[in-house]
Each structure stands twice: as C-alpha cells, then as structure tokens.
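Incident review: delayed structure delivery

Summary: a single-chain prediction request sat in the queue longer than the usual turnaround. Root cause was a stuck worker, restarted by the on-call engineer. No data loss occurred. The affected request and its eventual output are reproduced below so the record is complete for anyone auditing the incident later.

Affected input:
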Amino acid sequence: MKTDFSGPVNVFRDRRLPEVATPAGYAALIDAYDLAVPVPRILSAIGTKHRIIEHGGWRIFTPRHAPDATLEGHLTFALKNEGLDLAILKRLFLAATENEIAELVRQKPTGLYTRRLWFLYEWLLERQLDLPAADKVSYVDAVDTELQYTASGQNSVRHRVRNNLPGTPGFCPLVFKTPALTQFVAQDLRERARVVVSQVPKDLLARTAAFLLLKDSKSSYVIEGERPPQDRIQRWGRAIGEAGRAALDEAELLRLQRIVIGDERFVKLGFRAEGGFVGEHDRETQRPIPDHISARPEDIDSLVRGLIAFDQAAESELDPVVAAAVLAFGFVYIHPFEDGNGRIHRYLMHHVLARRGFNPAGIHFPVSAAILDKIGEYKEVLESYSNRLLPIVEWEPTPKGNVKALNDTSDFYRFFDATPHSEFLYECVQRTIEQDLPKETRFLRSFDTFRAGVENMIDMPERTLNNLFGFLRQNEGRLSKRARESEFSQLTSDEITRIEELYQTAFVEGSAIPE
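Output delivered after worker restart:
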C-alpha cells in the first residue's frame, strides 16, 4: 500500500493548481492512501511564497505552514486548517491499519488533535481501539466551532472530547462558517419575518398565506417540468401547509410520496428496490448518461434512518436554515424513491423551518418559487456535489436503461459538504421574507382597494369582477376594445374610464403591479 507523500505538483486529480505546490492535509492523504472519495471543494497545498493564495478551489499556504510528511502531520494540518471531512476520514481510517491510529494516540495521549482523531475513529467506525480511557484533561470539541456549524455537544469521557457533531454516524453532512452564512445569520431573518407579519391584518395575512402556499406548490411542480391539474397543486399546497406538524419518519415520507404522485399506475410507490440516477439516455443505445447516481437500494433504509435521526437531533441545535439545507439536499442526493424526490426534498425545507419555528405561525415561505427564479443557480448547487461524487461511483447499465452501482458509496451520501446548499437556501429564504411576503401583501391591499371602488360604482358578481381585473392586468390597466365590446359591453364609457383610473391608483401608483 502506498503511504509516501508526494512532492510539488501542478495538477492534482485533474485539478490544476494556481502554482507548483506540495499537496497538504486531505489532498496529501487522498494521494498517499489512494482514497476513492469525492475531492473536497477546496484543497490545500504548500507553496513557496510567503502569502496565502486562494484561487480555483485551492488554498496555497506558506512554507511555514508545511506539516510533517507523516500521517499525523497531515491529519493535524487538516483538522487545524480544513475542518472535518467525515467521508475522507472514514475511508482513511479503513485504509490505514488500526495500529497506525492507535499509535498516534499512544504517542500523544493528551494531544488536542490526537484525541479528536481517536474519538472520530471510534465514532465513524463504531468500534473501539485497544486504548485505555484518556487522562482527566480539558475537553476539546470534535468539530472546530470557528470553522463549521455544530451541535451543543455531549461529553465523551473516554476521549475527553465534546461530541458537537450535528448528526450521527448514519448521516452527518457539515457546513462551513463562510462570510456569506455569517452575514445571513447576523441578519436574524426570523425576527424580520415576524416584523413583516405583525404589520398585516389577520384576515389579509390568511389570504396572503393561502396564496403563497399555492404559489409554492405550483412552482415545485414546474421545477420538475410538470403541469399537473389544479386539484393536485392544491392538494400538495395543503400538505406544505401542514409541514412541521408531524415528526419525520418513514411513514411520513411514504405518505408524502403518495400525495405527490397521485396516479400510481405507472410509478411504483415506496422506497426504491433498484438503482436510480438523474440524467438522460443516449438516443440510439438508450444507455444511461447520468448527471447524478443515487444511493444504492440496499443502503436506503440505513440512510433514511440517518436522515430521521439528524432531523430529531438538529431540532434545537443547528441554525434552522442550515439544518433545512442539510436535511433537504441530503434527501435529494439519496433519492430514495422512483419519483417524487424533488418535491419532497423542497417540502423538507418547509418541514424544518416550520418545526423550528423559523417562519411565523401560519406562514410558509414560497421557497420553491424563489428556487424557480434561481433555477440555474439551483442546478449549480446540486452539481456542486454531484460532479465530485459521480467519478467515484462505479456503475454499469441495466437492461432496463437504469444504472447499478458496483461499489460501496453509502458514506458519500451520509457525509458531504453542504455549505453551498446552505448559502443558496438562505438566499431564497431572505428573498421570500424581504420581497415575496411584502409584495403579496401589498397586492392584496391594492386589490381590496380596487374591488371596493368598483363595487361602490356598480353591483358586479365576484367572478365577473375577477374577470374584469384579469383583462386590465393583461392590458396594462386598460380594457381592450374586444373586452369593451364583448364581456363588458354593458359598461358605459364613463364607467370604464373610472374603473381604469381605479386600477391605476390601486396598482400602478401604489407600486403593487400584479404579476
């Protein structure tokens, strides 16, 4: 087994360095132990200049940061500078001998980094090394709270380590504390949403909430390229409205799939018994061309249990938006169903936000509508991990045009870097609070003003008034010649002029132009 560490390079795993440098930390460990793992978004190397360079997915450190060219040296460098990558650590622990890890601890039994490695080894592999309990030294966090989001933590007396990992060995993606996320958290969007809602009368708020639910449901289907009948959109909207009320478990996920699918004649409901992928088929051969390969069917049960355990553990720990991103994107990467995964994935965002009390009572932010408006960025976020995962999955096509994963990939769905996903979801939530919620409220106020003005002029059934409004909206506030001569031929010229003026006052001058 190769255990030597490379010297300076200008290319690593098809990724070009900004300058010739020596891989360090996780990059060095991946190379030395020939680990088949998704390469981290940001890799580290030691350069020759006396300044740190960040470019093209690389962080080039100065010579004084160079670690010892040993397992301990590069592991310590990784923990100190790169945070935790649990997928790499688990595969490294499996590749190294048990004695190699135990010897690191024996050499430095009170070391901050060796105790963390000892704890992580036993936590990830769920087996103990032949080591006595640590001496009574100060506790150290398993996850560096300066680098990544954590749970509050429970003490592991054996290692003198505070287990502040936000999940379980069954499912524990991690998120880095980037400047963008730090800024989002500091804005306290939860409180900003409450301020917006507190200024809206209850009856108007109820109508706003109903519209936003319908908008989110419709947008979620559109993202999947579907145009279902209105009753299915409304049914899914009602389900979103109940998000967070029931605890997440397997029965709840199966219930949601039944609601989403509706017609089950051509879709097998329940967890997949075969492989799965997202992508296309070759037109001539029908061979799969995957953009993402889903978890193996034999791993789905344990992965779903991990998801559920994470949801329960994260209820009072992680930032709510970060927790929602981790759970929702973890679910969609696993892709446990034949169909319905995308809509349930977005439902889980609502589930976490509602269960954690992030959104005001009775309001569900139209996250899917925000995603639809950012569909290109949404796909990039999904691919931020899928593109790094795909080269690691060994697969073969099946006679039915599906894929069959040949290697053990389960760890890569349990542990991944959900930082881009958290930043994206925060962007969407911020937009719904600062734009969508106030905009819909303004629109309903304006519509009420317009309706009251029309009803003071003429007795008109609600359906007819809604048609009148629709014609005005389509023609920039003017009633078309056809509408004047057909549907509204009984209106006088003076009445039409006054109605158009009402529309102008309510919507254009009031800056609540309807979509």
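Verification: The CA atoms of residues 101 and 118 lie 7 Å apart.
Action items: add queue-age alerting; document worker restart procedure.
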